[in-house]
Batch of 4 targets.
Target 1
Amino acid sequence: MKYGYFDDTSREYVITQPDTPLPWINYLGCEEYFGLISNTAGGYSFYRDARLRRLTRYRYNNSPLDMGGRYLYLRDNKSGKYWSPSWMPTRTKLDEYECRHGQGYTIITSKFNGIKSSARYFVPLGESLEIWQMTLTNESGSDSDLSLFSAIEFCLWDANDDATNFQRNYSIGQVEIAPLALERRGAGGEGLTVIYHKTEYRERRDHFAYFACSEKLAGYDTQRESFLGNYQGWDQPQAVESGSSSNSEAHGWQPIGSHHVRVHLKAGEQKQVVFVLGYHENPKDAKFDPPESQIINKQTVKPIIIKYLQPANADEAFNTLRDYWTMLLGKFQVTTPDTDTNRMVNIWNAYQCMVTFNMSRSASYFESGIGRGMGFRDSNQDLLGFVHMIPERARERILDLSATQLKNGGAFHQYQPLTKRGNNDVGSGFNDDPAWLVIGVAAYIKESGDWSILDAPVQYENETGSEAPLYDHLQRSIQYTLDRLGPNNLPLIGRADWNDCLNLNCFSDTPGQSFQTTTAKDGTIAESVFIAGLFILACKEMAGLTRKAKEERGDSFVFHLSSDDYLKFASDMESTVWAAGWDGDWFRRAYDNFGHVLGSKENTEGSIFIEPQGICIMAGLGIENGNAVKALDSVAEHLATPHGIVLQQPAFSQYYLHLGEISSYPPGYKENAGIFCHSNPWIMIAETMVGRGDKAFDYYKRINPSAREGISELHKCEPYVYAQMIAGKDAATHGEAKNSWLTGTAAWNYAAITQYILGIRPSFDGLEIEPVIPADWDGFKVTRKYRDVTYHINVTNPKHVCKGVEKITVNGRLVEGNVIHAEKGAGEVNVEVVMG
Ligand code: BGC
Ligand code: NOJ
């Protein structure tokens, strides 16, 4: 069953009934100001950091689902009947309803009793504010007298404190209600009133929020209980019910922003009302106006508010946003025989990659915004799907991440986006973390050709004076693993590797203890085959990078190690894997604290895991000796399901003290044999590496959300973005997805389909072309912007092979090999690729 449809021409997903199985959300903003918005206008906003600069409140884990957001209410003043044009929170049955989620905007349109309304929500580029444009049309056939109410609930900035420290925060809320007009006559804003939220502005904060409306107000409210009425909910606010606001001023308690506008519409008449909700900072020494007062200095904010309250300016900002996305998505466009592939690659997967780049795992409907900052391994992997869109921002991210690296080459597992400092609560010791920096940097250079990043001076542990070239950081990343080998010469796992729940040194028997940070063992025994594979991959990247960097940069640059040194590290580790990490039919997973193997036929539960099969083959293991095919056949036999590939089998039926969180989940969920989508693309990539395009694409389709749209009642999450997990075959709800949006699946699946299945892959030497596709495809076309050149690539497959390139011509000229590198300034280039 579907709850909507894809409108590919408009690049929108259109939801046609409001009661989707779960809130189906979207993100507003792609720079510094962000919002989450659901198909019924639920959600919240923040500036840069969902924990430390939360603008509006949201109550997670609430019932009914998704209560609280950017609400507008309409009231027919003749009958007293009121409704929510976004369905929530009043849940009045609407005569028409449609929600269009696009890139950075959402439009909710509905009709009730002849009044059509359409609210467009978005964040203009370059601004820290959001615009709600509400267009009302009277289609009732007679004149109407309407009231329009807005309502948001301010968060007292620190979302964690806001949700916990009530003895203090019930007494700190402050607002200001002030006229908008600029002092200069005719400068705009005459007669308009703005609600300012200024909690703690009188003391150490130099920022405030504002909520403005383009119309003269019939009234307003800033105290929640005055608007709602004691013991009344958002579904039945007293002000809306009675048709009048109480002009309340919040002193402590729960500051809100609500405007009340009277709208008289003749039959057929239309009117637009604009709301602007924003964040603003003042210089520390210019906070107040007059300076000796406690009144917010509004000199610099007023022109911004006035600008965006004008519909023409709002429209222009919206069009600029649309054009921006046309430009970003235009960097990779494909036409294949498969619609689900086309729309995911061309629109939704790329869009999701922007969101994961911005949010890491911090704020979604499944991530509270207060639990996690930017993950080290996560953000490095997120770059894979994002870097081609805005390489400059990828560069900045790499420098921020590496500045949190420890001197011993390890890494803070997370950093806080506002402070950009490593998060001590989570600390370090996840032994896979540093290797991901190499993968991230390699991806950046392959895309951009910007070798200068290697000598960018970067601090260690954010310490002034500790600056060293980024290349030094990469070397220390590699050294970190070499310094931490276990009894079998495999890398020690530390707190965990990519699988956060494989906590082999944790041994926690105390309820509520964090599996991630509790460490009861000294960590000198438990080893990870996964890190071994990742290390080999990272060493090969270092080898390629060093080779090419030498060519590009000559001897002026200090390379401590040579390309061959890295290849030697890789081949030594490879021998170790064959000696201790190969189980006969697949790669083993780990050795526990007792030195016992995991992910082997010797284990009755957890005898085969997906991760080492993916990463070891991606690192090139087993391609020549046939073991890669063996391992992949084992994956197909033991792990594949129609809904995707589960993480491991057999699922852990009980809690094992020595394994940690992985065994804490009921069988079939999350890391305990759920379909943990992030690792599925590794198998797709591995399948391409052994040339099996049919299999790779088959796995791709199983978790492609668009291909699952028809089973939305089972899948439950949004059909336009990947979810972190789909319940595995051991779960009662096999096929049900959870934790949509913020997952490494976005970047990896984008890499799997674009770089390995379609095979258009940036390399150190240029654009490599190596498609591994389903044999029944006749071919496909790609437009790829790469290092300032636009490549129009036409791939034909006359012999219906999965793999193999017979010839490539560039602008009609035959080229040798399959790496193309047009000169900068070449403009548009036509590439013909014949498979065979
Ligand atoms: C989840 C993991 C996650 C980890 C870190 C665990 O509870 O299952 O997927 O990576 O927490 O927050
Ligand atoms: C989600 C985390 O964000 C990621 O870092 C981890 O690799 C996976 N869970 C697997 O545990």
Target 2
Amino acid sequence: MEYKKRFARLLEITRGLGSAGDVEKYLESILSAATELTNSEVASILEYDDTAKELRFTAVPWFHRETILGAKVPLDGSAAGWVFVQGKPIIIGDVSSDVRHYRQIDRLSKFKTSSLVAVPMLVHGSPVGVFEALNKADNGYYTEDDVALLEMLASLAAIAMRTDVLERRVQGSNNEITELDRLKSEFIAITSHELRTPLGLILGHATFLREMVGKEYYEQLDAIIRNASRLKEIIESLSSVDNYQKGASRLRQRKVSMARIVEDVVASFQEMANQKGVKIRMEVSKDDLFVDADGAKIAIALSNLVKNAITFTDQGGQVLIKAELTPGYVKVSVIDNGVGIPTSDLPRVFERFFQVESHLTRRHGGMGLGLSVAKVMIEMHGGRIWAESVEGKGSNFTFLLPLESEPAEKQAESPFYS
Ligand code: ADP
């Protein structure tokens, strides 16, 4: 075959690697290219089976499929075995006078091998199989050119086979992850449901008792009520993320004033900020900051950001809450000059249960849910939330909320989901 045609054929096979959806078909095309380019009668691939410690035919021409596909070839006493063990190519001009030829396969396939060329298939330098071509046309001799061609095709076949194995593994892992995620969601749903009832009873009775008993027990009962309420918040956080993921969460949307929400949230954290010695400030633009939203959910999102900003800012620090209008959106930022977040952790802060410091060593409470809840609440409205931070300098958490409400099915068309 003339040089140009050979090159075109090789190029075609190499290109096919990128679009090889079906590995079997791709290997078939490699085998026919090998047959053509080396002027052989047949070509085949043997893969090494690490458990059985032998080679097996995994790709053969269609007319041998019935007889030798899957057939085993021992490492000892076969040309393919020799190539595999030595990691070197082989050319046998006349198999009838070479003891390395394994005759059993010819018997099975009713084929008569006269000459052969075989090369090892390597992945990262380790042999994974053998690629061979048999019976050079016109009783010719295989040359170093044939070896080079076969080596090239063997590499492509090895990559395709390896990719197929890896893709299958990834698919398997994905299925496992989906199943684990389902089990985790089920666990969270059941646990939070089961905890809610007794907790409601504890809160109810404690509140009742507080009314009934004298002031001397107020402190103890307040502690019970405060901690039970905290537990309730945690359970609500767990189930709100989960409900959203299942699409079970409902929005009660109406026109709400963002300025009002910011004022309310700032007021509710004033006491915490004072105790910590952190100055809390707001800058609300004079524009009309009305959004179509579920005010309670936006307040939860903003509260979680403000709570974090105060928590992760040392005494003497500052927290600024800004609300302003941008085209089509209301933009709210919570800016602090606290401890900041390492760049490597920044992409993960919105993940559920993620905390920069390990749960065991950190000084602050929390379960790593606040930001994931905030993200859920904002994205439910077709909005977007993100964080910028410099470690040791401070953090800036910002969210955008569309001025007009977007129906859930339209969310995919929002500018953030391109
Ligand atoms: P948690 O309730 O445990 O604080 P969050 O989801 O609210 O969980 O936050 C996750 C983690 O992100 C926090 O534990 C903290 O390490 C980091 N983080 C969040 N906000 C800030 C902030 N303003 N400054 C520094 N770190 C922050």
Target 3
Amino acid sequence: MTKMPVTRERELRGVAVYPDIVIGKAHLIDRSKAKILYQCFVNGEDLNREVERFKEAVHTVEDQFVSLRNKVPDKVKDQSFILDSHLMILKDGMLYDSTVKTILEEKINAEWALKKSLEEIRAVFEQIDDEYISNRISDVENVTERLLRTLSGDTGQSLSEIDQRVIIVAHDLSPADTTEMNTAKVMGFITDVGGKTSHTAIMAQALEIPAVVGLESATALVEDGDLLILDGSSGVVVINPDDRAIIHYQEKKLQLQTYKSSIARTSHLPAETPDGHRVAITANIEFLEEVTAAKDYGGEGVGLYRTEFLYLREKGFPDEEDLFEDYREVVEIMNPAPVSIRTLDLGGDKFASEIAISGENNPALGLRAIRFCLKEPEIFKIQLRAILRASLYGKIQLMFPMISGLQELLDAKQILEQVKEELNRDNIEYDTNMEVGIMVEIPSAVAMAEVLARHVDFFSIGTNDLIQYALAIDRVNEHVAYMYRPYHPAILRMIQQVVHAARNAGINVSLCGEMAGDPFSVFILMGLGIDSLSMNARAIPFIKKLIRSISIEEARVDFENVIRLSTANEVLAYISDRMKDIVPEFE
Ligand code: PEP
Ligand code: MG
């Protein structure tokens, strides 16, 4: 591709991955797609040779992944499951068997057959309306890319060979590429493609490599040797910066360092206000692998374990033993801190192919979560048995999602009792004091909060769904995203109503939607009387710092002021002003 000459400074914006700033020389890596020049027909003996060529390529790539996995640095051991998942993809029927079958049936070369398998897998992933899961197609693409390179004999430049201090510029990097990086030399990397939830981004965060992804045209605009500023906190990349920009970013880097060390010093302290009010800060997780990070960031437990992802990740539903092992490990790692395990919340924007609830016009209002579990009690009971058995290994709190009213809660509790009786009969022990709570995320549950509170040990407010259902804004529809407002006075009033109901019944109330990790909402939620906040682990240190900087008295006054306001814009303006007082460096 011919490059547009860059003579003057130019700024690009992408997705910030790891918040650090580096200034250095660009090193372009050719990770453009391997070229498949032709489809050719093969016949007779050559057909078997073609299959063998494909199988050999799979062996070679398998050896590469195994050797990379064995070399994974200690600090990213947690993430080595990414390489395991690459190994699984290599042997997955949809890739391996289907490519062999296509070579034999269509009598075509291995490259072309592999490309066809990738297209079929991509079509399946495109049906999935879940950002995390659909982004996993990039893992399949990375594996296919390595296979295609191996088939063509071009293995590309290994990132372990780079021996100068440079910023890598590539069209795309695989998680395996990231693992190979010599972190003593590579200052950071930027790529044209990728998003925040790509495994390459997850690896960069774990390895603490400054990175910006999704820049679209970085490889077209940057020349090898160009000077770059990579700001991994804002997602900005400056090509050939002038002196003014260099000084500006050097100052910003210093501020960021001071700020990070002040946060790191306090992340393991309790979230306690200067006048002694304590808020419990816990983490939301989707997979067992995230528990260690949750602890490292100062999480005082897991406030929401979204168990459905295990059902989406596995081929076929996991059995009781798989579930038990997974829950037991999470609980043991966190012990004695509590783990709130939410029962299956499949449906809505989270589908599993085993469930035949396709074709619903309004999946968010359809057969999802507890409704699905009550309709399929056998599936539900397997999960409840696994949770109860794991409850012996630490402190589990069981949480039912999407409860819309009392009858549904009573039905769910009745099934729980049946499972307990079955365990008693089989002489299997469990924690008989395990707390049972519900997610309050449907407006009807808010209206019934006083009644529901008498039947549970705790509430956890799921604002992600509560906002969607209360404001009638589809949370995954980009056309109405601008109307999805956590600071809408209606939402604040609903949260207040739930907190009052919990107070009157003497039960704990937590909030585990994205709003919990939003610095702008934290002092309002404190003032409102929320007992605990559960969030993405990375948000924990800053939220703790905020709580430690404001008195509960002030937060209560702020809440009283905010609840009198009539529009989301007024609320936001009030909060922005207050944030400037509370953390001046936040601007
Ligand atoms: C919520 O709805 O706020 C919530 C935490 O659950 P999820 O995002 O998994 O629906
Ligand atoms: Mg929800």
Target 4
Amino acid sequence: MSYSQLDRPVQFLKGVGPKRADAFARLGICSARDLLYHIPRRYDDASTVQPIGELEVGMDATALGQVRSKGVIPTRKGLRIFQAVIEDDSGMITAAWPGQPWLDRKIHQGDTILVTGRVKFFHGRQIQPRELTIISRGGDIDKNSGHIYVTYPASEELPQWVLRRIFGQNLDELLEWADDDEYLTIGELRTRELPPLSRALTWLHRPETIAEAERGRRRLAYDELFFLQLVQAQARRRVADLEPGIAHQRTNKLIRPLHEKLPFTLTGAQARVLREVYADMQSSRRMSRLLQGDVGSGKTAVALFAMLLAVEGDYQAALMAPTEILAEQHAISLREILSPLLVDVVLLTGSSSAPERRATLAALKSGSAKLVVGTHALIEESVVFTALGLVVVDEQHRFGVRQRMALMERDDVRPDVLVMSATPIPRSLAMALHGDLDLSVLDALPPGRVPVRTVIQTPDHREEIYKFIHQQIGEGHQAYIVYPLVAESEKVDLLAATDEYERLRRDVFPNHQVGLIHGQLSGTKKDSVMRAFLGGETDVLVATTVIEVGIDVGNATVMVVEHAERFGLSQLHQLRGRVGRGGAESHCILVAESRDEASERLRVLTETTDGFEVARADLQIRGQGDLFGREQHGRDPVLRFADIIADEELLVEAQKEARALIASDPELTSTEHQIIRAQLQGRYRDRLEMYAVG
Ligand code: ADP
Ligand code: MG
């Protein structure tokens, strides 16, 4: 790997030294490169900075001036106020910070400060800043500020003015060194419509306009997405290309009769996705595909055809579900459809009896069983297949990446893998998170689905809600009532839910059967509660969040969510998906205080039943940060510059380029790719290790 000046420890830059280097390390800055990539968190346009002479009482203003005098003034009530008189070419104003006398130690006479706040009348004009930036200390000439004032992420030990001074001393040099990291040729920059790295960084540190800073950000966002996709493209290649897969033979001897037996015809979306799956399965390249589809979009039907393609070519297929009930439900419905085709379906779960288990294992080993449905019991060592050709993983977010891998990484078999998920995350996010997988999306529901009616109700309407539930039970239907349970207040929440259950049972539904399910119950207990509801023995199911994913109780027509404002939108959408599965009109009632701003957010759910739209809104509200939380290693967020929603086209471009590069030079060994290779190492050391399994 070639050495770049950018690899120098930050300590050796001008004005840093060992003590400040420690402080920098605490900001995550160790090398000259880290400092160069320490990008302002805020830009103030000079046009939004008002001349001090023009500030008027009542204005909310941003002003920039030099501190002429300052001091702490006590008031009669014992409050201490820090005041500073600041001046620019147009005039002077007093800035006052009640209750912050300690600022006297931070702000020095002669400092240039940037303040934002309301202008009040108090012995003349006075600005009370809610934001403060010390732009420079004493007589520092601030060569960084043109028309835009930049504010860096700072710390107690490295305040703004220190950072600005250090950038003032080093930025020219750092920007020259930036060319060392340029991995795109002039031609490539042009086709991608991106600026060279050094220019992008100049724009970010010393923008002439805010738009320039944005163009600079876009370049760094591309880089981030490109390297993320590169890691995933390598992982994808390792899974799919290096180890040859099975070229399944399509004979139609099962697929055709299935089309005839099925009580419906496939939707356009299902047919398209199926073509993608068939093409993967029939090629000798190993399939590694994620199938995304909203609840009820018909993923299981797609999986069924895929499994029959494997079986008609004399391979075995396995369907893995996250819970026993779900596995059983799958087995029952598959048997119903497949028995006329003379395809046996065996079931393997943790509670299979010993003789059952022995028989199933023998049938899988001998190859007499072609299709197996099960839970994670399927990935145990003792489960041996003769010719496992396809693994379908249902509701993948319930399984860890490890478990998914474990099923795929048997030394003897290289089955194709289809992972199904009902969490309708936006396509771009799926690409960013699962760039190692190919993506298929079921973007339409089967026809004739009656959309769930969703309303927001205030708690004082509870009696009406109960009346409505009584009415639905009277018509032979069932209802869910869900209470929130969050980690921070788990005990209190659980108590509240249990109390409510007692109250509902005793006072509200004395003549009906009410069940209770929550995470603290044992697996068997949960199972029996769910089974009672599934079988129609209970009318109302009180639950804390964990209503089994994907469970089908066609008869349930009401979903009430208490304290709906405490749930995420996507979570609420999933809960809503538990009803509306039969033919009858279904209702989702979100109970939330109307005054609460959070309930404004819930409106999205009353306006759309499209899970992707809900997910998009959710992502916009919550921000992308915590979405990467689980995948994150080390302190740096995976994406600092890229915005998954806004930068979707950049992401598509980055994925295309990354995959093309890996296809042409898988291990990045050619000389022209050495900069890319070095950067990849630097950026994703942890991730490379994570993906290097097997
Ligand atoms: P998912 O697993 O995506 O939540 P399912 O595969 O369980 O959805 O399908 C939901 C329901 O829709 C099932 O009852 C299934 O029989 C039915 N279904 C699936 N595809 C179609 C279709 N093309 N036309 C009509 N009904 C369908
Ligand atoms: Mg399903």
